[in-house]
Design a protein that fits this description.
The protein has 518 residues and is an alpha/beta fold. The chain is built from ten helices and 20 strands.
């Protein structure tokens, strides 16, 4: 009996041992399959989430008067990029991977911008609302990107596995990845990254002009006050232009808006458009430096020319490249003059571009050409245009050059020369041979000299002028329009009457009540 029990126990132990060996062998046989299944599931989830982010990780969000696009992309380095066409971009080391955020400023809504300008408390409301808009956009982007990533992973799993259980597992793995990515981003979030951005494109000059972001943040109240005053300036100009009586000495008066040196300042276009509409401008003459560096990226800045609805006569400045001139020429209402003469809306205009191209903001910069020879080239360009005018079979009413140094060679060959370049207004009478004289009108900077307008102690004002021509060509009068630069509470419109069609008036006649109250 005892022997039978021993044999039974031995048989049980042997059976259990064989079962364990079989289970271990089965486990070892299935382990690679399970590992392959897990790796495959993870790869499908990773690829699916990436595809989902590429297809669905994008939202449109209004930030104040700006329309912006928020995009999330897979990235090992993380960070945030802010694109501000056509000025360039800036990179922020805001967080580590595996997701990169890109914000692009697409356009400005004109109605919201005008409402901001006209509202007494508009700038304060915009400052507070912009923060909420960005937060709202970031939240929407996070939820939409997460949903798109999980959905992308499950769709890819359905195409590969065609099994509901595996599709569910893939969705779960994708959700874990998204949550882990969010934890990494929040854990590595650096709020002070905005103090040390990396600038690209034209914005590379921003630190030298406006200082670093830390000093701006420390002086936020002062900057906000200056911005409020600037908004008041714009509002005052709109109001002044709307109420000023239009000068109409004769029927058929030709009204010309003279602008110059916009230097890539987008604030110039709304002002130009307003003056064109309020004064019933017949044509615009731009004496150059519409861009800063003449790069292809700046070419889109001139697209606003096509919205003005009147002819736009342009000559190159020393900051405008051939690319700039070509971009202007593509506008349906633009006329680019290069040592040529054109009749535009009853006025015959001659023009020549600046012989220099100095995008580094220096006065001299032609490679291999000494400074004194450069000066000779500028003077010679005026003489070249004078020869073209003398060969023209008819009478030329206006000549356009960029640098007033080119005007000397035009003395006596044309009654009026328009120029820019100096970033402030000047007038002079140039005496030619015999009793002939030429009135030289140098325009200030319609763009407030761009970013460089903030470099001095006093910001450069935004200036433009409305010129009134008789139907037969002579200049009768002009209005100087001035908007104070950043932080300056000043807007003025001064009228001048030309008594003998050649010499500037003895004094200015300012329009009353041109500075903001309060």
């Amino acid at each position: 009996m005892m022997g039978a029990m021993v044999n039974w126990r031995a048989a049980v132990r042997a059976t259990l041992a064989r079962a364990r060996r079989y289970a271990r062998a089965a486990h070892e046989r299935h382990l690679p399959r399970r590992a392959a299944f897990a790796v495959g599931l993870t790869l499908v989830a990773l690829v699916g989430t990436s595809v989902g982010l590429l297809l669905g990780g994008r939202i449109h969000q209004d930030v104040g008067p700006f329309a912006a696009t928020f995009v999330m992309r897979p990235s090992l380095s993380g960070g945030t990029t802010v694109q501000i066409p056509p000025l360039g971009s800036l990179d922020l080391r805001s967080h580590d991977g595996p997701a990169h955020v890109e914000v692009t400023v697409d356009s400005v809504d004109r109605k919201r911008a005008e409402a901001l300008v006209n509202s007494p408390n508009g700038i304060n409301a915009a400052s507070q609302g912009a923060v909420l808009d960005v937060q709202r956009g970031a939240t929407r982007l996070a939820f939409q990107s997460a949903g798109a990533a999980v959905l992308g992973a499950m769709v890819l799993a359905a195409l590969i596995y065609r099994d509901m259980r595996r599709i569910a597992w893939t969705g779960a793995v994708a959700l874990v990845m998204i949550v882990a990515s969010g934890v990494i981003a929040l854990g590595t979030f650096r709020p002070n990254s905005v103090e040390e951005p990396q600038y690209h494109g034209l914005l590379a000059n921003a630190p030298a002009v406006i200082g670093d972001a830390r000093s701006i943040a420390n002086r936020f109240d002062a900057y906000k006050a200056e911005l409020q005053r600037l908004v008041n300036n714009v509002s005052r100009l709109y109001g002044t232009v709307s109420t000023l009586p239009v000068y109409q000495p004769d029927a058929g008066t030709i009204r010309v808006l003279h602008v110059s040196d916009l230097h890539l300042n987008p604030a110039a276009w709304p002002l130009i458009r307003t003056v064109v509409q309020q004064y019933h401008i017949n044509l615009v003459i731009d004496t150059g430096d519409i861009n800063d560096w003449g790069t292809p990226m700046e070419a889109t800045f001139v697209d606003s020319i096509g919205t003005l609805g009147v002819p736009y006569v342009f000559i190159r400045g020393n900051h405008d490249s051939a690319t700039t001139a070509a971009a202007v020429a593509k506008q349906p209402n633009a006329i680019v003059l290069e040592n040529s003469v054109r009749e535009v809306d009853g006025l015959t205009i001659a023009g020549i571009g600046d012989p220099r191209f100095t995008p580094d903001k220096s006065t001299h910069g032609l490679e291999g050409v000494p400074a004194h020879q450069e000066s000779d080239l500028v003077s010679a360009s005026g003489e070249t245009l004078a020869s073209t005018i003398r060969r023209y079979p008819g009478k030329v009413d206006v000549a356009a050059v960029h640098d007033p140094a080119s005007a000397g060679g035009l003395a006596g060959s044309v009654p009026l020369v328009l120029a820019g370049h100096l970033h402030h207004r000047e007038t002079a009478t140039l005496h030619g041979s015999g009793d002939t004289s030429t009135f030289l009108f140098v325009q200030g900077s319609t763009g407030g000299a761009g970013l460089r307008g903030l470099e001095g102690e006093q910001p450069t004002p935004l200036e433009m002028s409305v010129l009134y021509f008789a139907p037969d060509g002579p200049l009768q009068a002009y209005d100087d329009i001035t908007l104070g630069g950043t932080g300056q509470a000043e807007a003025s419109i001064n009228r001048h009457v030309i008594k003998n069609n050649l010499n500037p008036p003895p004094s200015e006649s300012p329009v009353p009540d041109t500075s903001p109250s309060g």
